Structure formats: C-alpha cells, structure tokens
Amino acid sequence: MTAASCGVKKGLSVVDEFLKGLKMGLLYKEESYEIRKAIFEVYNSLGSGFLESVYQEALEIEFENQKIPFCSQKNIDIRYKKTLLKQKYKADFICFDKIIVEIKAQKDLHPKHQAQLFNYLNATDLKLGFLVNFGSFPKAEIQRFVRNKQTNKR
Questions:
Q1: What would the DSSP string read from start to end of 28-89?
Q2: pLDDT band at 23 (very low <50, low <70, confident <90, very high)
Q3: How does DSSP assign 22-34, residue by residue?
Q4: pLDDT digits over 127-150, tens only?
Q5: Cys-Cys link to 17, which of 12, 91, 146, 151 (CB 3.0-4.6 A)?
Q6: Closest CA to 93 of 25, 34, 10, 138
Q7: pLDDT higher than 50, residue 154
Q8: Residue 96 and residue 35: Cα distance in Å, rounded?
C-alpha cells in the first residue's frame, strides 16, 4: 500500500514484518533487534506524553547503556543536480553507521514523517530506517523502511 500524497510505502505491521523476515531474512536483523530493544526500554520507562527532545536524550542514554554505536543529530548533505547545498537535513540518530532512527512524539504518524525518513535514506544511500513514534499509546510505534532502487530517485 502506498501513501498517495507522497508516494512512499507505509510501514509493515509487526506481524507482516515478522513473517516477511522469516521468509526473506531481515536486513540488519541483529542490529534492528538491538535498536528496537532500546526504543522499548525508553518507552517502558517514560511512557508517552513528553516532548521529542526528552526521548532523544533518553534514547542516547539507552544506546550508550546497551553499547549501540550511534551518532546523534547527524547533519546530512543534500545535493541538487550534483551541487552540494548549504542546507542540511539533521537525522535524529544513525546507528551502527547504517541505520537511520527518526523519532517523533506525535499522536499519529503522517505521510510527511515517512517522506522525511525516505529523504534521509536517499540522501545518505543508507538502506534501512526506523520511524519511531513515542507519542502513541499504549505502546511505541515503530515503522521499518527499506530503501531499494525504486525508492531512490537520484
């Protein structure tokens, strides 16, 4: 299924993701598990209702505690027709030098949030990203996106 307004795929449900992973093997399976574990640890401790900056700081601490290598608030270069722009994107986290983790603290995720993550994936040529919503209740929402050649518009 696609989000008509921005042409991006919606995240798979947890069950669909699990079944697809069994059939095909998940990209960065072990690293993904570690990241998800840290996300759920933060959510189980704080719950929903805080600002994104609170979850950003807590997730930094949890990544450190679980020894997950990460860069926080990493600037991402943007090119227009092979020219490097002065403007930068700022990804919340890049973990294991290969997975983008973009966090939100919203009631609901919207297609614009998914488009943002796809832009980060395309700008970095990384293949995997997690869109995490700490504002959802009763549990954190995690959408997993894999960039393939069809989603790379460069």
A1: THHHHHHHHHHHHHHHHHH-S-S-HHHHHHHHHHHHHHTT--EEEEEEEEEEETTEEEEEEE
A2: low
A3: HHH--TTHHHHHH
A4: 999 999 999 988 999 999 998 865
A5: 12
A6: 34
A7: no
A8: 10
